Amino acid sequence: MDVFQVEHAHTWLKLANERIQANKEQLTELDQAIGDGDHGINMARGFKEVISKLDANDYDTVADVMKDTAMTLMSKVGGASGPLYGTAFLKLSMAFKGKNVDYQTFIKGIDEAVNGLKQRGKAEIGEKTLVDVWAAVSETLQDNTTFAGDTILQTAKTAMEHTKETMATKGRAAYFKERSIGHLDPGAVSSYYLFEALSLTIDEGA
Amino acid sequence: MKKIVNNPEQVVTDMFKGFVSAHANTMKQLSETTVVTRKEAPITGKVGLVSGGGSGHEPAHAGYVGKGMLDAAVFGEVFTSPTPDQVFEAIKAVDSGAGVLLIIKNYTGDVMNFEMAQEMAEAEGIQVDKVVVNDDVAVEDSSFTTGRRGIAGTIFVHKIAGAIAEQGKSLAEVKAAAEKTIDYVRSIGMAIAPCTVPAAGNPSFTLAEDEMEIGIGIHGEPGIERKKLANANEIATELVEKILADMDFTDSDVAVMINGLGSTPEMELYIVNGRVQEILQEKGITVYRTFVGEFMTSLEMAGCSVSLLKLDNQLKALLDAPSEAPAFRN
Q1: Using CA atoms, how far apart are residues B180 and B152, in angstroms rounded to an integer?
Q2: Which of A45, A128, B64, B107 could form a disulfide with A168 if both were Cys (CB 3.0 to 4.6 A apart)?
Q3: What are residue B174's phi and psi, to 5 degrees?
Q4: B279 burial class (0-12, 13-18, 19+ CB within 10 angstroms)?
Q5: Coil, strand or helix: which one is B120?
Q6: Residue B202's pLDDT is what?
């Protein structure tokens, strides 16, 4: 893959939705341990709506796919995940606007998404949130020169697993302090599924 | 799980329909939203008050919509903040040109969604300000965490801000009174049994028969400390002492709220209140008014929270002002 096309974007979100739906209970259980137990339910509702929206429209640009995804997540997910995932996709849309999404544009978009997530969530790396996964992927992408699915997958997986050992200092889990250690962060896990879907999209070439 | 629902994923939609028809005399639904407003909104010259949050806290938040309290409430999914577009609709519907105050509880999701709605409204030229309620002393307030949660003390903020807004005061004055209330209110909760979010289908945490959890939030999240179940007097003592350790109420007049979390009978709430009143008397704290009942629940969680609000003359008058909200008649 040299250029990320509309069909890639659509496949990415379709695969992401499949993973979110299949792991809805797991995400909710993780959130029950250190949050309020609605992450799987909310993400499943939001991504289902995203797919209905994308399937019902024809898109000319990746930016438009990202924008509709962002708006749908923002208005259907709620909680903290809605604004956060909404912001991430909105930043991707803004970075891709009017551009051919080649590798450089793509990594610029992910970088902007990370900045958006940090700003919206007032979070930094290492606070046991989805930022940990997004920032790790962004860094790996910067170190590469072409779309490489397996690298993205491994990076996201390692970063997601690392949230198990860390203590939460942001989000609902922060109230658990030491008790948050030993539990994966639900947002990091849902972000992992998103990047797993991206890596498959890249490897399969849509 | 045994609940009276049709479809676990439709509970909010179904509840909303029932709520709107139950309160059709005083409230209206904004079409195609999960927002209810006072029937007469927007009210000329009056600051609009908007609150909301996840469902499952009934009678919060929509039960506090009415003359003397909120102008609009926004329903979210169960224990999930409403989305920015919904909050934005509420803001537009209650703004009469005098501005709108958002009353937000301090949870990451609520703050983010309401702030985004505020940004949307400001972009359209509506004057919007916000206050964030953080009355829960169970949670340490440190720069490394999200800060304290907002729990039942929020009802006092709705009441005080609602009363002053009703007098036609400016957005800055309404905000100042709301902030004073937030500064003066402290709460803490405890549970003896968890709740079950309908769509999740299993309890949010487990407690053994002889265990209780101190410092729980209102979303089924576990508390800060799990210990052996104590009797009502011991529980009341522990909760009040945690509040008094956080803020000095000596020689103050206070309002007391004993709030049930969903499945604790009034009998038990009154037992707790009996001991709370004794302790306050022993400490030289004068109780001006007491509220016992369900104000901010957590589905069918068994347990209660205690809130204390320090009162000066302004707050006393505002607390005593009339309210026609269905869940807070005054």
Answers
A1: 16
A2: A128
A3: -65, -45
A4: middle
A5: helix
A6: 83
Which of A133, A140, A107, A138 lies closest to A193, judged by CA?
A133
Q: How far apart are CA B179 and CA B12, in angstroms?
A: 31
pLDDT in tens, B253-267: 999 999 999 999 999
Based on the residue annotation, tell me whether B23 is a catalytic residue of this protein.
Answer: no
Note the pLDDT tens digit of each residue in B129-171: 999 999 999 877 544 557 889 999 999 999 999 999 999 999 9
Query: Poorest-confidence range of A37-41, A114-118, B270-274?
Result: A37-41
Structure letter (DSSP) for residue A170: S
pTM: 0.90
* pLDDT (average), residues B64-72: 98
- The residue with tokens 């509420």 is B90
| Per-residue pLDDT tens digits for B138-148 | 877 544 557 88
Token pair 């259980």 in the structure block, residue: A29
Note the pLDDT of residue A82. 95
What are the backbone dihedrals phi and psi of residue B105, each rounded to the nearest 5 degrees, phi first? -90, 145
Specify the residue for token string 């002492």.
B241
From A73-87, A159-173, B152-166, the region with the lowest mean pLDDT: A159-173
What element of type H or E holds B226? strand B225-228
- Chain B CB contacts of A172 under 8 Å are 107-108, 146, 219, 221
Q: Do residues B221 and B267 lie in contact, with contact meaning Cβ atoms separated by under 8 Å?
A: no
Euclidean distance between CA atoms A132 and A200, whole angstroms = 21
Give the residue from chain A lying closest to B115, CA to CA: A120
Q: Residues of chain A whose C-beta is under 8 A from some C-beta in B?
A: 28, 32, 35-38, 41-42, 45, 74-84, 120-121, 169-172, 174-177
Query: Is B57 an annotated catalytic residue?
Result: yes
- How many A×B Cβ pairs under 8 Å? 107
